[in-house]
Amino acid sequence: TMREAIARSYNVSAVRTGMAVGIEAVAARAHALGIESDLPIVNSLPLGSAMVSPLEMAQAYIPFATGGIARRATPILRVEDRYGNLLESNEAPQPGTRVLTETGAALMLSMLRSVVTSGTASGTRWYSAGPYSGRDAAGKTGTTSDYADAWFIGFTPDLAAAVWVGYDDHVVRIRMQNGRGETGGDIAVPIWNRFMRRVFRGADPASAPSFPGAPSGSIETAVICRLSGCLANAECGDKAVEEQFWAGTAPTTYCPIHSSTSPFFSDTTIPDFTEFDRILGVTSGDASH
Which domains are present in the chain? Predict the structure, then answer.
């Protein structure tokens, strides 16, 4: 499913989705979300082939936490001199621009939550445990070719933070002493955890804000087969998962793979990718969404 692809960082799924909606549309959406750097119109763009700063990445994830509203990042809240006199303040609420529908933002938020609950950033559970229990978080890890860079962009309802680990010359690779490469989940997520624990030290989790939800009736749930993307039947077994959809876009036909009457009955059958279109609400080649 799209949720699993995001949670486990499946590169093929990202490229197929980018080709389905159009790479130009991917770049346009990234700019609307908050990416300011030039983005090459190439099929590898959804994999992170462009040079983008950590601040831009943190800024681009703000709409997923705000119900679709983009805002300028404010990395420096205030500046004081050594006597405590205020020299500059950026603490006033920033004006925002809607770049995603509330429903679209809620669906993306739900999938990005899966990254931290069961995916490549599941180490963030350390952050939300103990005195921090009750604080919600979501995000996405990233690891570039041959372990040159490790990323994690994570956010709560009130703070987005990006962690990048790497070398400026892109020559030295991030590897452990045994030679195994370090991923975003291995090295960037723990740094994010420590930072967030420091930020919210002493804060009452009970008073923490919540992520905004989708408008009532705009999202529906269905139990689908994770291989076919169709409604699950009794023979789908552990391949059946509950998934969210735009209202009116959930599949209506039952799984043709896990059926004793199907000539394609096999646990190893390669699924098609029509489910990605259904979740995104687009048709193949349509760059308008």
Answer: 2-207 (3.40.710.10), 219-280 (no CATH)
